[in-house]
Design goal:
Strand order of the largest sheet: 29-3-32-31-30
Number of strands: 32
Keywords: Repeat
Pfam families: NHL (PF01436), TEN_NHL (PF25021)
InterPro entries: 6-blade_b-propeller_TolB-like, NHL_repeat, TEN_NHL
Mean pLDDT: 95
Number of helices: 0
Helix content: under 10%
Protein name: Teneurin NHL domain-containing protein
Strand content: over 45%
Shape: globular
Low-confidence stretches: 1-15
Organism: Bizionia myxarmorum
Structural class: mainly beta
Length: about 325
């Protein structure tokens, strides 16, 4: 469909969707609660959504966790100044929180990047440390475990956590009691394989499907990787640094960071340094749905502009929401 026209050929029938980009919340760089463009963020990154349609944002350089209700009203639920403190609401402290995910009970989990910890926020705002201590690499439970710059986090359908442990170049699993183990990855590199025989290079974000598969934005390798339920790592799209649509390894990304999955098995990628949002179908076909050169413009498809889009999430109506870092905004992408 081009301009709402269905295209039919002798050997095929296909529909090209258009995607409308708008601004959901945020304006200039700063810190302010408020509605829509009256609110301010400072380098927002992680984003997740609950069953009621509320969004939760890791407002990284403000060291806070923000909430956006379905009407676009932004409030602060936890965090204050840069630091490392458990507590309730603004009595808690984070240091560059980046990843954020929500479990079936409404608990939030934060990849608190520069504290090298995984933090938990209950629905009443109580912040605790689930796992992690000083920077390093160690499996174990609670404070015996170590991470090094965790940036991405997701929750599976059994409420297990999976973490993109960025500077350790590994994917880690965290159970509800804080037990940390390594799922895949070893030294930095680019190798498919099983478990620790595989290699990543600066994995940034992670998402899970209902079958127990994990999908990784392997940023430093400019690739999208998959880990199946047996721990086997494969490459589903991407090759060298670049900007090209295509199938599988014929496609190119430039430091892809955000990744999310819709109900049909399509992946959506915040291709950060290309300033674009990309789509990967279950067959591995990569296309560009929005974005062009860096900037700030609402619009349809390539007429819209982002400036380092970082993280991405999808709602139950297949609307996408993107943390547009250098524009300090949350953008909405609606299929037309």
């Amino acid at each position: 469909m081009v301009n709402s026209t269905e295209l039919i050929g002798p050997e095929f029938k296909y529909i090209i969707s258009e995607f409308q980009v708008s601004t959901f919340a945020g304006s200039t760089n700063g810190f302010a609660d408020g509605t829509g463009i009256d609110a301010q963020f400072d380098s927002p990154r992680g984003i997740t959504i609950d069953n009621a349609g509320n969004f939760y944002i890791a407002d990284t350089e403000n060291h806070k966790i923000r909430k956006i209700n379905p009407n676009g009203t932004v409030s602060t639920i936890a965090g204050s100044i840069e630091g490392d403190a458990d507590g309730t609401g603004t009595n808690a402290q984070f240091n560059a929180p980046e990843g954020i995910a929500i479990d079936s009970q409404g608990n939030l989990y934060i990849a608190d990047r520069d504290n090298n910890k995984i933090r938990k926020i209950t629905p009443n705002g109580a912040v605790t440390t689930l796992a992690g201590n000083t920077a390093g690499y160690a499996d174990g439970t609670g404070a015996d475990a170590q991470f090094y710059g965790p940036t991405g986090i997701t929750v599976d359908n059994q409420d297990n956590l999976y973490v993109a442990d960025n500077r350790n170049n590994k994917i880690r699993k965290v159970t509800q009691n804080g037990m940390v183990s390594t799922v895949a990855g070893s030294n930095p590199g680019d190798t498919d394989g099983t478990g620790t025989n595989a290699q990543f290079y600066g994995p940034q974000e992670i998402t899970a499907d209902s079958q127990g598969n994990l999908y990784i934005a392997d940023s430093g390798n400019h690739k999208i990787r998959k880990i199946n339920s047996s721990g086997e790592v494969t490459t589903i799209a991407g090759s060298i640094e670049g900007n090209a649509d295509g199938t599988g390894i014929d496609a190119q990304f430039y430091i892809p960071i955000g990744i999310t999955l819709d109900s049909q098995g399509n992946l959506y990628i915040a291709d950060s340094y290309n300033h674009r949002i990309r789509k990967i179908t279950p067959s591995g076909l990569v296309s560009t749905i929005a974005g062009s050169s860096p900037g700030y413009t609402d619009g349809i498809g390539a007429s819209a502009q982002f400036y380092f889009p970082l993280k991405i999430i999808i709602d139950n109506q297949d609307n996408l929401y993107v943390s547009d870092r250098n524009n300090n905004k949350i953008r909405k992408i609606t299929p037309e």
